[in-house]
């Protein structure tokens, strides 16, 4: 990887152990800041409750993590430069240290206890990604490893865990969790094979260690440490920021995945079949974008999957439902749209299924994979949602198989 940025790594002393919608993030990135491992923490007894009085914290050229133990004690962990890794930061802040600004998605978790309605649950400096470099002289097949850590450095190059934050000290090693936590889920299986399933959600600490989930998102009691699991990202790993979820795609995985051109080709294939509306007897068209001639757009009956055009037949009095003229099943109807983000696809198959209730189309394996991902929602709940629009899925299984009247020439 290339970088023209400043870099950070550990000191020379003993090491301290350490919902557009779902954002698709590739590992082919260039960051602003890099660092390696942590140096030994320095336990400092303060004569003032203001940790900013410490030189290591006040100096913007020095990156540090401050663990406040009490009004008179804090553990400060300093970083030094390294040229083998790149650091990328994610958060709600638009300040310079943040490489990827993320806002709450539609249908994001409700405010946690003590927060006001409308207040974002995403941290301004939510998490950081540490990625090994692939320099010009390296073997092009050298694997690029990316790791995720909770919390990011602010504009003064600091991370603060206050007195009330969940933190602990074991064998002189400090670690902690952020208020709403950074959750991580690796796919169970190879993402691009189309055979992967949802893994288990875990929480990542500030030091990059992995823990089972807390009883509630902002609980002060940490989960059990998972010593056999790591914070190393896999192709298809999900990072939940409590308000938005990131999908990590590796460069190797993207090379084996559909592209925008492939998605557009699938749209052409659907239209080449000249699907017909059985009521209006007109040819339907799947637009490349959210547009098109109204009477040519495709609509799907979500209960049965029959695809038809726009018409007035089958309205059910007093309900926002219609009766399908093909099989007479009564249910909701929605407009079909192609899922346009290729990074969400797990295979190259044509679009044969659609999410309920939004109507986004994708391949069968893609729809089924995402329909059974339990996305964290609220203090301790989960929900299934469409990756293309973040709308919660309805009914079981949350999707329908499409039945076209096509290729009838």
UniProtKB/TrEMBL annotation:
InterPro entries: Pellino_fam, Pellino_FHA, Pellino_RING. Residues 53-266 form the Pellino FHA domain. Coiled coil: none annotated. One of its GO terms (molecular function) is ubiquitin protein ligase activity. Keywords: Phosphoprotein. Residues 270-409 form the Pellino RING domain. GO terms for biological process: protein polyubiquitination; regulation of Toll signaling pathway. Belongs to the pellino family. This is Pellino.
């Amino acid at each position: 990887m290339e970088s023209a940025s400043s870099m950070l790594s550990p000191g020379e002393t003993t090491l301290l152990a350490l919902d557009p919608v779902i954002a698709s993030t590739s590992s082919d990135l260039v960051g602003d800041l890099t660092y390696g491992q942590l140096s030994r923490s320095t336990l400092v007894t303060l004569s003032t409750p203001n940790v900013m009085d410490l030189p290591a914290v006040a100096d913007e050229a020095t990156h540090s993590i401050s663990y406040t133990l009490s009004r008179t004690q804090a553990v400060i962990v300093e970083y030094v430069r390294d040229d083998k890794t790149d650091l990328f930061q994610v958060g709600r802040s638009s300040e310079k240290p943040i490489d990827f600004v993320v806002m709450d998605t539609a249908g994001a978790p409700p405010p946690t206890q003590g927060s006001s309605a409308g207040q974002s649950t995403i941290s301004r400096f939510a998490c950081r990604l540490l990625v090994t470099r692939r320099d010009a002289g390296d073997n092009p097949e050298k694997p690029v490893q990316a790791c995720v850590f909770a919390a990011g450095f602010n504009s003064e190059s600091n991370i603060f865990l206050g007195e009330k934050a969940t933190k602990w000290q074991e064998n002189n090693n400090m670690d902690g969790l952020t208020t709403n936590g950074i959750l991580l889920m690796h796919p169970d299986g190879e993402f691009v094979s189309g055979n992967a399933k949802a893994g288990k959600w875990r929480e990542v600490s500030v030091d990059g260690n992995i823990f089972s989930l807390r009883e509630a998102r902002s609980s002060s009691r940490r989960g059990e440490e998972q010593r056999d699991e790591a914070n190393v990202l896999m192709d298809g790993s999900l990072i939940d920021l409590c308000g938005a979820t990131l999908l990590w795609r590796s460069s190797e995985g993207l090379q084996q995945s559909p592209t925008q051109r492939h998605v557009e080709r699938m749209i052409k294939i659907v239209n080449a079949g000249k699907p017909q509306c059985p009521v209006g007897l007109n040819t339907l068209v799947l637009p490349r974008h959210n547009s098109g001639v109204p009477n040519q757009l495709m609509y799907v009956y979500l209960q049965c999957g029959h695809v038809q055009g726009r018409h007035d037949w089958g309205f059910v009095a007093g309900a926002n439902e219609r009766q399908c003229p093909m099989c007479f099943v009564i249910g909701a109807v929605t407009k079909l749209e192609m899922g346009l983000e290729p990074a969400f696809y797990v295979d190259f198959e044509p679009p044969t299924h659609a999410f309920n209730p939004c109507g986004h189309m994708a391949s069968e394996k893609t729809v089924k994979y995402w329909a059974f991902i339990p996305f964290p929602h609220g203090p301790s709940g989960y929900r299934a949602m469409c990756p293309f629009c973040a709308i919660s899925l309805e009914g079981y299984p949350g999707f329908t198989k499409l039945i076209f009247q096509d290729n009838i020439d």
